[in-house]
Amino acid sequence: MADDLITDGSADLGPVTTLATPIRLDFEFTPGIAQSRFLRGLEQGKFMGQRCPSCNQVYVPSRGSCPTDGVPTTEDVLLANVGTVTTYCVVNVPFAGQSIEIPYICAQVLLDGANVSFMGLIQEIPTDQIRMGMRVEAVWVDESDLTPSLASVRYFRPTGEPDADYDTYKEYL
Amino acid sequence: MADSEVLHAEHRLEYPYSRSTGPIIGAFLTGLRDGKFFGATGTDGTIIVPPTEYDPITSDDVGELVEVGPGGVIESWAWVSNPLRKHPRATPFAWALIRLDGAGTAMLHAVDAAGPDDLATGTRVTAKFRPVAERTGSMSDIEAFVVEGGAA
């Protein structure tokens, strides 16, 4: 065995035992007209949705057409800054790349006036007090920091209103 | 809505994997960091470069590691006129299968040459390593291969 030929590297570095092999996909993302409108709304601190002219469902964010009826959603709808927690998850497990201190609450929020919920972070409440039906409001970044991105929404927090009746959101679970 | 109001954004999806090299490839990469090439001895005595942990034909464990190169011969090549962002060089270069002196297999790497007229199957090339401080123990520790005796 020609061990004398095998280098162990310098004393400082030691032998190579691992290799960084990042897998990377670079996209150019074009959200399209409908989602651009939603994102432009976020830039102004507003939730913008669209209504289906056939079934009257309001989607947020809208993809520009109704997934049920297949027709364009042309009517823009300004949604409320408040909504209802339909379901939630308390995250207790740390993972690589985590940017929020655990434990934290990830919830589906049904904004008033919308017919689909979307995912939001819930803060300003102990994690063991979150519940289905809780009324929450969006907390936005400072006006100067608003961007056309969901990062403009810092989180949702309880409004203190009484919980919503189960019947008002049972269709959205 | 005017087209100019439709948004565009760069989006990168990346998984930061790291792999264990194992003793054989680890020794090869350690060698690169030291500016040397090592191959593994296969069952029939062929020196496999880059080394595998097992003989690709018999599946036996490979034998001793031996130093090869840094010169070698181009066995096959393709000229890249318009390098992409992912390529190892920003200027036109060749991908080549290079059989290092002492090796029985060819290894893929980039060849830095002025143009395709400087290269042919059988052209002798030699490795140009990056400066010691820039080496990390990876294939990119070899900046490129250059034509032996050429102006590189």
What does this structure look like?
The complex is a heterodimer of chains A (173) and B (152). Chain A is built from two helices and ten strands, in the order ββαββββββββα. By secondary structure, chain A is mainly beta. In chain A, the strands form two sheets. Chain A has a five-stranded antiparallel β-sheet with strand order 8-7-6-9-10, with no helix packed on it. Chain A has a three-stranded antiparallel β-sheet with strand order 4-3-5, covered by helices on one side. The radius of gyration of chain A is 23 Å and the shape is globular. Chain B has one domain (12-147). Helix content of chain B is 8%, strand content 38%. Chain B is built from one helix and ten strands, in the order ββαββββββββ. Chain B has one helix at 22-33; strands spanning 9-15, 18-20, 37-41, 47-48, 65-68, 71-80, 93-100, 107-112, 124-129, 142-147. Classes of the chains: A mainly beta (173), B mainly beta (152). The interface between A and B is medium-sized, with 35 and 34 residues. Strand 2 (23-29) of chain A pairs antiparallel with strand 1 (9-15) of chain B.
| Low-confidence regions of chain B | none
Secondary structure tally: strands of chain A = 10
> In percent terms, what proportion of residues of chain B is strand?
35-45%
The 3D shape of chain B can be described as globular
Query: What gyration radius of chain B follows from the Cα positions, in whole Å?
Result: 19 Å
Broad structural category of chain B: mainly beta
Helix content of chain B: under 10%
Low-pLDDT sequence parts of chain A: 1-9
Strand order of the largest sheet of chain B: 6-7-8-10-9
**Morphology of chain A:** globular
Count of domains of chain A: 2
Radius of gyration of chain A: 23 Å
Oligomer, anyone?
A: heterodimer
Percentage of β-strand residues of chain A = 25-35%
Distance between the termini of chain B: 55 Å
Distance between the termini of chain A: 66 Å
The helix tally of chain B amounts to 1
Instruction: Summarize model confidence as the mean pLDDT of chain A.
Output: 91
Tally of individual domains of chain B: 1
Largest β sheet strand count, sense and barrel closure of chain B: 5 strands, mixed, barrel
Order of strands across the main sheet of chain A: 8-7-6-9-10
